[in-house]
Specification:
Keywords: Methyltransferase, S-adenosyl-L-methionine, Transferase. This is Methyltransferase family protein. It comes from Roseateles toxinivorans. GO terms for molecular function: methyltransferase activity. The chain is α/β, with parallel strands linked by helices. It has a single domain, classed as Vaccinia Virus protein VP39 (Rossmann fold). Helix content is 52%, strand content 18%. Helix 3 packs across helix 5 and helix 5 crosses helix 6. The protein binds S-adenosylmethionine. S-adenosylmethionine binds next to helix 8 and strand 2.
């Protein structure tokens, strides 16, 4: 990290100290991300830690959750490198194991995922793409309301509310734990009055409401039929609206059941669902250890509904 001493750096130094005891390996990710993304990243990450994990006890729990989340992901990724497939699992099985599993969601999944958005290079690059290539359009068009589907940690909803002070949002998820976490995350920034968290599966129970901006980050690979979700997202979007949709590729996690090996597979589904690709961003998590070894990657797309 740089030489300036600020409140953000104090917070990140505290984080590094807490990582000493329970997630030592994660210290390098903090230093690498600080070097790569600079002071804006430091301020953004530290603000989230200060607001959402305000006490040392809460911050230590988050660090432990992140440590377990990374260890679990690495173990699954090693197996994936050999099998080149995700272990067979139905959506209902993944939902029971993860989305409705109170202990797993609170202790590991949600804090782990939230910290990964800042500490995994391709995750933070995806956030930069969202801030640089999606949110400015909402601002220019004076969009007043957005929807997010599969809110998880709520970070994308919170960033949208933070970027545009007049914006209101609705967050849909099937997991009461994700909804509770998201509501607390949004409230910790003072945005609760502009946001509603709704328990609703937009595939099975389409919403009558239409939004000019629809966000869905890292949900497609969680489904048996991602095209059904893409059609559900199209149904939520107003004819003159835009969508920000992402997919994780070659990334083994407890709840990833649909394997995307190549970005073109996602782009083909987008086409099938009646959506038009405006532009996209793609990044690998890291360089492969050996040529040909699959590495986790992120594809983020800005889409419009076809007539
Ligand atoms: C990996 S998280 C998504 C990441 C999240 N957008 C974030 O930025 O932190 C997956 C989320 O999708 C939710 N989910 C799974 N199936 C869903 C569905 N059919 N409709 C809405 N949410 C769903 C899960 O409950 C979980 O909260």
């Amino acid at each position: 990290m740089g030489t300036r001493m600020s409140a953000s750096q104090d917070t990140l130094n505290k984080l590094l100290t807490l990582m000493e005891g329970s997630a030592r390996f994660a210290r390098d990710s903090v230093k690498r991300a600080a070097a790569e993304f600079g002071p804006a990243w430091e301020d953004d990450f530290a603000a989230m830690l200060q607001r959402f994990y305000g006490s040392d006890v809460a911050l230590l729990d988050a660090v432990k959750g992140y440590g377990s989340f990374v260890m679990d992901s690495m173990r699954r990724q090693k197996r994936f490198e050999q099998d080149l497939s995700y272990p067979a699992k139905t959506y209902a099985e993944a939902a029971a194991e993860v989305y409705y599993n109170d202990d797993y969601m609170r202790r590991q999944y949600l804090p782990g995922l939230l910290l990964s958005h800042y500490l995994w290079t391709h995750h933070y690059q995806q956030i930069e793409y969202f801030k640089g290539f999606f949110l400015p359009w909402l601002q220019r068009q004076q969009v007043s309301e957005f929807a997010e589907v599969g809110v998880g940690t709520g970070i994308y909803s919170r960033l949208a509310l933070q970027h545009l002070p007049e914006l209101r949002g609705v967050g849909f998820d099937i997991s009461p734990l994700s909804l509770e976490f998201t509501a607390a995350h949004v409230a910790s920034f003072g945005f609760a009055g502009r946001y509603q968290a709704r328990k609703q599966n937009v595939i099975d129970e389409p919403s009558a409401q239409r939004f000019r901006a629809v966000v869905c980050v890292e949900v497609l690979e969680h489904l048996e039929d991602p095209v059904a979700l893409l059609k559900g997202l199209k149904g939520l979007c107003a004819p003159d609206g835009k969508l920000f949709v992402t997919a994780a590729l070659n990334a083994a996690h407890a709840d990833h059941i649909y394997l995307y090996s190549h970005p073109q597979q996602v782009l083909d589904q987008v086409e099938t669902a009646g959506l038009h690709l405006e532009h996209c961003f793609f990044a690998n998590a890291y360089a492969p250890a050996k040529p040909g070894l699959p590495v986790p990657s992120a594809l983020a797309m800005v889409l419009t509904p076809k007539a």
